[in-house]
């Protein structure tokens, strides 16, 4: 695999930003690493960080490079600060950046596939929310979305992050039934009759977000969305996420290698 620490300018944010990028490389002389690649441009996973982290965290806390190498998939890991992947009421337009600008720029820099069936998104905690938001809001762009211990019910969590949410949303009482509400997005997706992305959701049973995740799972199932849900005894911690990101990579609808 090739690992790239990429720095570039974002027009949406009006500032220099960073992302970490992993690209497949087949290297027969590498010791102890199974490496694969598809022909042509690479299937791509956009992998999102949580509230207290940045674009470096997946490389620092997991073996994502080794896991991705086994599957021949590129991984894009951007930084969005504490934005909840939203266009902030008092701050930059992070939703515009992550949903519109970043995919276009990443594909201009690197040989990444553009086809829906070769693009996926995943994340943990705040990033799990961002991954579901992208998959539900843009089902024509992503074939799959995965949330690991996601903050999937931000209406319920509005008072947990009062300073952040005031900057992000302004009046937190207005979040419900808007495109920032995953329950609303799930309902809108079903009503639109568009092709649905595959959805994966997991959460530890001792996680403080467990009840939120059960509520979102049950809502998706009631709406007729096909969602794979898994739980086990775990808290909100990296040992669990390191295991589950391997599961996500196995679950993704990757094409068959030649």
Automatic annotation (TrEMBL):
InterPro entries in the record: AB_hydrolase_fold, Esterase-like, Mycobacterial_A85_antigen
Name of this protein: Esterase family protein
């Amino acid at each position: 695999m090739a690992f790239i620490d990429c720095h570039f300018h974002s027009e949406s944010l009006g500032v220099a930003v960073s992302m970490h990028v992993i690209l497949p490389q087949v290297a027969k002389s590498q010791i102890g690493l199974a490496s694969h690649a598809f022909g042509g441009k690479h299937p791509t996973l956009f992998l999102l960080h949580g509230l207290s982290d940045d674009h470096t965290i997946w490389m620092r806390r997991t073996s994502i490079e080794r896991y991705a190498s086994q599957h021949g998939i590129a991984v894009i890991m951007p930084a969005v600060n504490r934005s909840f992947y939203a266009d902030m009421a008092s701050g930059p337009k992070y939703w515009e950046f992550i949903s519109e600008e970043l995919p276009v720029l990443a594909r201009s820099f690197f040989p990444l596939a553009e086809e829906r069936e070769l693009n996926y998104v995943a994340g943990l905690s705040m990033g799990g929310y961002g991954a579901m938001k992208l998959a539900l809001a843009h089902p024509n762009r992503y074939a799959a979305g995965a949330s690991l211990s996601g903050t999937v019910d931000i209406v319920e969590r509005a008072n947990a992050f009062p300073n952040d949410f005031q900057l992000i949303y302004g009046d937190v009482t207005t979040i419900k039934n808007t495109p920032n509400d995953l329950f609303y997005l799930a309902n809108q997706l079903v009503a639109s009759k568009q092709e649905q992305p595959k959805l994966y959701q997991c959460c530890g049973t001792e996680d403080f977000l467990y009840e939120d995740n059960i509520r979102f799972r049950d809502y998706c199932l009631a709406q007729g969305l096909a969602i794979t849900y898994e739980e086990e005894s775990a808290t909100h911690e990296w040992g669990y996420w390191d295991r589950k990101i391997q599961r996500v990579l196995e679950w993704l609808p990757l094409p068959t290698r030649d």
